């Protein structure tokens, strides 16, 4: 075996470097295939991104068509390209925010850091330089850059890097009252923005309490605080609509997206910026926002996003997620009686997680990893989340049988773990 030179993200390399690598060679629909041709259900859509499923030739053809003409050129100054223009118009149209403008990046972390810089620059331009604090929620994951790590709500992610970003504060993930209290104690005049995932994804698949999204939107509006919805996971059909914000009647000032925007066929992120924030930059009163990326408005990536959105629309994938949302509690019910299962979390769209029983986790701390490994043996790929929950967020093209395949694999996993 040749030594792999690939350093894996989110991975303790000391645990994998002596193992034979697990190579995925092909994907088709909701399934992936390894080098030996074994088939696996993709129960996590990669890292929550592959909404339209794998192996879509029409997306590859759209990339080929665009990239053989012109893969990319900068979009600084007055330079532009057709796919970036079309995509910006389409995202602005879908956004619940009136008169939105779209700023492109290369992924979710880029987009969150861009949003932090944009809102601070916005308040500075309005003559309010002290309005700098970025509020976020405990348990939230917003990315791996210095800024997005710094506002993240998973303590372990922030450890060991020194001070990442100043002027931040976190609020309880499930309490609009705590947001209000924190704003009052800091002083609203110091708070620039509140960043929130409509459903906390990597932090444990945590669905907001009923009315939470509307309540925090109202609090932000009342205090003039910029509301940033991190829809990197919940966007593009995952939550049963193009955006969770749209579904729940919330109008954020900025929607951050990535992942499902291209279903992972190309790295791409975007900020959909409402008129309130964009206007001072467009009318010249704020001066320029000197920020951007080499690949902002990448033509090939934009063509891929347009082809992906065509599929989501044509195949009514958001509606499929919505319809599965109502069926998931039943489909996953065989898990609820298992003694090692605390809760099967379902709620919005095609996002779910199996929370293991704290007693079982105490007795067997490696239980989630062992279940995930056993599921792979049984032909289902997924991962465990921060609190040990087993993630279920497959491509949006699935039906009942794939949900059952997942449930059976979790049961097999739980039943093959030797009691300690
Ligand atoms: N925001 C959320 C909610 C995410 O789940 C992620 C990634 O998992 C990010 C931001 C960061 O996105 P990326 O990994 O594309 O930089």
TrEMBL record:
The keyword Transferase is annotated on this UniProt entry: yes
InterPro entries: Aminotrans_3, Aminotrans_3_PPA_site, PyrdxlP-dep_Trfase, PyrdxlP-dep_Trfase_major, PyrdxlP-dep_Trfase_small
A single MF term (Gene Ontology): pyridoxal phosphate binding
Keyword Transferase listed: yes
Superkingdom as given in the UniProt entry: Bacteria
Keyword terms: Aminotransferase, Pyridoxal phosphate, Transferase
PANTHER family named among the record's database cross-references: AMINOTRANSFERASE (PTHR43094), AMINOTRANSFERASE CLASS-III (PTHR43094:SF1)
Family recorded in the similarity comment: Belongs to the class-III pyridoxal-phosphate-dependent aminotransferase family.
Protein name: Aspartate aminotransferase family protein
Species lineage: Bacteria, Bacillati, Actinomycetota, Actinomycetes, Kitasatosporales
